[in-house]
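Re: [ENG-882] Designed sequences occasionally contain unexpected residues at chain ends

Forwarding the minimal case from QA. Structure tokens:
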């Protein structure tokens, strides 16, 4: 299975919080890292550690008697990158330092993330009921890599020492045909960290190198389709409620009709998440707005940008991307409009749906006048009304408008087809200015009282 489209979202999950603005190793925000999807060694976790040693995904399939699961468990393995300053090259003497600066060059100590993937391809015959299970073991060995640090003039100033601790894991996949009139199969996937650990009281920072970070799973099914756990069909709700997910959030991804690919994420998502096409690249903070992060990055001093580039190659890529961002690309980040309905007036084509500013689908609306009936009186553009906000729905600003008279500027409906009246205060000296900007107060029809001259 080609997870190419799904990987774009999965990569954003994998690197969420990897390095945060201002993208420097010395920044306070980057002192506590690796917040999502951490699966710690079992012995440390069971001794009272703050991270789970196993995560579990349970999901549902509409499946034939014989189906195949194709999956990839992905995570980051923490790699310590230590900067060592050269004291005596001939004798091979070095000392670890937080940062090394020489001849205009800067290098910092930092923990990097190495991508890891564990693939599986499992066929499950569940003819006539029952279930089946599979086990997939995986391991990544301890390594050490040394890289010389050369100054801009070519001299050796020190070295990078990159070390990775060994990690061992186990995937436990179990499927069960559920009883009932529907062809439902429950899939349970556990990702377990069975890395040996002999220091039960160690600090969290000490066990990160032996943990899985940003752990998530991509699943594809052949011979079936996944059931949405967020918006299941009514007949599947009891089975959905029986699913137990531990530190995971399974959502449908990719094709919205086939439902054959699922992402089990360590952060909460909705079904069929997508990367905004306006985004030029990852900022490692999907909860923030790209435009804000780009503008903040532009305010960094040259020295701050220098340190960010020395922190991590991915941080350097952000700085370089923002520094060279053309104005038209920044304009794209300012905002995008999606899901607009066609704005076709009745005069243009009476067979079309009512324009976006007229709630023609509402039973109380006259399609010929774009009005709404309030107490037997037709309220339309230009109508005078008295405002009567409902206390349970109004905010403090609305309450101050109680009893004020207003002019209706238009009849609107929202995405749920609820009707609203856009009004301007009759005695507001800035009413014309507000209308020019398209800024109005909005009230439901039951929050206004028609004045007599409307009838």
């Amino acid at each position: 299975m080609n997870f190419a489209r799904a990987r774009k979202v999965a990569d954003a999950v994998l690197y969420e919080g990897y390095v945060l603005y201002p993208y420097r190793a010395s920044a306070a925000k980057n002192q506590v890292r690796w917040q999502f999807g951490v699966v710690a060694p079992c012995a440390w976790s069971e001794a009272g550690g703050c991270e789970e040693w196993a995560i579990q995904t349970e999901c549902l399939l509409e499946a034939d008697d014989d189906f195949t699961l194709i999956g990839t468990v992905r995570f980051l393995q923490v790699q310590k990158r230590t900067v060592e300053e050269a004291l005596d090259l001939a004798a091979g003497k070095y000392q670890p330092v937080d940062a090394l600066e020489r001849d205009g060059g800067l290098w910092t100590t930092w923990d990097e993330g190495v991508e890891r993937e564990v693939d599986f391809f499992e066929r499950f015959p569940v003819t006539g009921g029952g279930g089946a299970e599979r086990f997939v073991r995986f391991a990544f060995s301890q390594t050490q890599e040394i890289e010389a640090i050369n100054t801009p003039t070519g001299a050796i100033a020190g070295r990078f020492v990159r070390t990775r601790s060994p990690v061992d894991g186990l995937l436990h996949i179990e499927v069960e045909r559920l009883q009932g009139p529907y062809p439902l199969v429950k899939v349970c996937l556990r990702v377990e960290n069975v890395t040996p650990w002999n220091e039960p009281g160690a600090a969290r920072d000490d066990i990160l190198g032996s943990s899985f970070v940003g752990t998530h799973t991509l699943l594809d099914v052949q011979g079936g389709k996944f059931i949405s756990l967020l918006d299941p069909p009514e007949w599947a709700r009891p089975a959905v409620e029986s699913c137990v997910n531990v530190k995971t959030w399974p959502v449908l991804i990719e094709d919205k009709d086939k439902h054959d690919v699922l992402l089990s994420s360590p952060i909460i998502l909705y079904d069929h998440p997508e990367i905004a096409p306006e985004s030029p690249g990852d900022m490692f903070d999907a909860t923030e707005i790209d435009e804000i992060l780009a503008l903040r990055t532009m305010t960094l001093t040259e020295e701050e940008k220098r340190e960010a580039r020395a922190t991590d190659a991915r941080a350097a890529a952000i700085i370089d991307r923002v520094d060279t961002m053309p104005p038209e690309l920044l304009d794209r980040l300012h905002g995008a409009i999606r899901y607009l309905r066609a704005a076709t007036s009745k005069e243009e084509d009476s067979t079309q749906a009512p324009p976006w500013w007229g709630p023609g689908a509402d039973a109380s609306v006259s399609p010929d006048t774009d009005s709404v009936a309030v107490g037997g009186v037709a309220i339309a553009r230009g109508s005078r009304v008295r405002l009567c906000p409902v206390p349970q729905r109004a905010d403090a600003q609305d309450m101050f408008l109680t009893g004020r008279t207003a002019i209706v500027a238009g009849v609107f409906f929202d995405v749920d087809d609820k009707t609203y009246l856009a009004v301007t205060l009759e005695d507001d000296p800035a009413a014309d200015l507000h209308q020019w900007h398209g800024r109005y107060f909005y009230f439901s029809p039951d929050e206004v009282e028609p004045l007599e001259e409307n009838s």
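QA comment: On inspection the terminal residues look reasonable. The first helix runs from residue 4 to 14. Proposing we downgrade this to a documentation issue.
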